[in-house]
Amino acid sequence: MSTLTAPVSPPPAPARRRQRRTTTDGPSYWMLAPALAFFTVFALIPLLGVAVLSLTNWDGLGTPSFAGLANWQSVFSDPVTLHAMWLTLAMTVLTYVTQAPIAILLGVFMAGSQKYRAVYSVLYFLPLLFSAAAVGIAFKALLDPNFGLSNAFNVPWLSQDWLGSTDLVFYVLIFVIAWCFVPFHSLLYQAGVKQIPTSMYEAAMLDGAGRVRTFFSVTLPQIKYTVITSSTLMIVGSLTYFDLVFVMTNGGPGNATRILPLDMYLTGFRSYQMGPASAIAVILVVVGLVISLLLNRLGGADKMESQQEGA
Amino acid sequence: MHVSANPTPPATKKRGTRRRLLASAALIAPLALSACGGAQPGGATAGGFSAWTLTGSQQDAFEASFEQWNEANPDQGISAEFFANDAYKEKIRTAVGAGNAPTLIFNWSGGTLADYVANGNVVDLTGKVDALEDRAIESIEQAGEVDGAQYAVPNNSTQPVVLYINEKLFDEVGVEPPTTWEETLDAVEAFKAEGIIPFAVAGQSQWPYLMWIQYLTDRIGGPEVFQAIANNEPDAWSHPAVAEALTRIQELVDAGGFGDSYGSVVADANADAALVHTDKAAMLLQGSWVYAGFKADAPEWYEEGNLGFAPFPTVDGGAGDPANIVGNPANFWAVSADASEEEQQAAFDYLNEYTLNEESIDKFIELGLVPSTDDAGEAIAASEDAEFLDYAYGMVQDAPNFQLSWDQALAPDQAQELLTNLSQIFQGTVTPEQFVDNMNATIK
Questions:
Q1: Where would one find the signal peptide in this protein (chain B) (predicted)?
Q2: Which residues of chain A are within 8 Å of residue B24 when distances are taken between CB atoms?
């Protein structure tokens, strides 16, 4: 959406005279129409539909019957869903804590000018090219205790019950998710770091700042908005992790990895309880929106102007 | 008539705008089309009808059967679509619910079929497909009944759950295939001592766990126990046979009966069967469909005669007939109530004349699948898989009761709860008592 509303060159497209418009510059709002139409048809209307469905009982066949707030009560009292909420929170925190530092460090490294940097960058970048489902299937095979990595490299220690042990499986998922998404965030940080004018580094060097000091005093503050963008994507994204978890564990063993998006799917499309599943979906949407708004506010993104000097 | 704020609106720009509009329209068009496109169930050739079924081991047999019909009835051709198992289960329910079902609906009978019947989505086949009913084994065909009326008819092979034996390991360790629960525990000890996994089980996939509770409950309490559960009788899960079956499962887990990493073994990739044919595991409780996999994945090992079969062991003092079996009696065709009368009639003709006819039985046998018709004995005897097919076929014919897999027999939400709780039983994170309470709560 933003790309369409942003004033792009070539400037002023036709505006109609009979419409009294306060602003005459910028493209016609009709340019917005296709995107808006899509957004309405494929996002707003289904969203409304889901909100309505959350007030009904429906098993996918027949006609939905009105159920009032019963589904909402059941969602907030069902131990499985409450457990799923807790797991989602844990996953958000853990994935953020593991991904953010790695992504920043890799991004800073990739923005530098070391030898073979480009080669490394390509390697780091690779996981981004694979679809999550393919990654899930591949890791499922690699983690097979009998025929997987342990067998290939003949390292018995690698033959753990990675996906079957309640204690291990959650951390295995955190690892695989990080493997998948760190490249993308590194790329963001790389771009952010490259924007920092070299004059700032030169000034820091003249002031006698070492590498670590430069990193914390120049690099980090300068990529503040990249951090906010990346954090928003990471945190809101962690609310929607589905494909990887679905492929790798299907929520199991038991409910050990049944995070909220998966709980929504299993409730809706395995148990065919569309009412409670819709309620969970609404919760996910609301929480996601609130978090991204909050993060933007905290970062002062309303006035997201450049803070770079001399750039 | 366009007036631009730009003092000199160059003509090229206008053209540029228009071109951009055209380009965006061109981008949008396929999206809009694909949004309402997808599979068009009504898209069969005029006068023909549609059928949705599964990819996998049976696909060849279905394709051959459809082709046979299409050759004989070019003006009433079947347009078939094949889906992966899970994708199909999700898609078919939406399609049926929205009145867009194919004429022939592939199903597992049980809880889902009962839902279709309750909503009037499928037609009563009683008296319309007698020729097919005559061919099918009676106990199998009965699984397609809902409230005494025939709503679905078997369309492929029968799939009993068999105990596969690695004969080579049994010879090496010097034990006999277990026939009782005590012998089972002894065999577990013997194999464990040699560093062999006694039973392979694909825990990651969860559904293979069902075979254990199904057989044990039947052996201990007989088929009536689950019948009461399927009938949604209050507290039906509280029958002592269920708790005892679960206790024995946990006993077997604790004894190391499944090794220590069964929770990561995946059934889709046949990793459970692979454990047996790589001589890492001694036994596997699985459906008859994995037999063909053994042959295909480990031809040398198979040729050496290492694969054996046995019935599930008995349990001392159990009420169930040791000849009872569990599994999928077959898969089924139901006929959509949303199809036109012409389409329905063509579908009835197809069912009567082509489903489970001689050619398709030969095809099943060729694929190493167990036929679900009465007089396949001769054809089986002549096949290269006679040993296994004869065993499984006899098992089905002699079984006083053929229990449909519980996850299919129950309503979908109950089945989902069952899989989760059973997985926790195998993990040791819930007790049999908690399992019984959790499952009783799903009875409606």
A1: 1-34
A2: 34
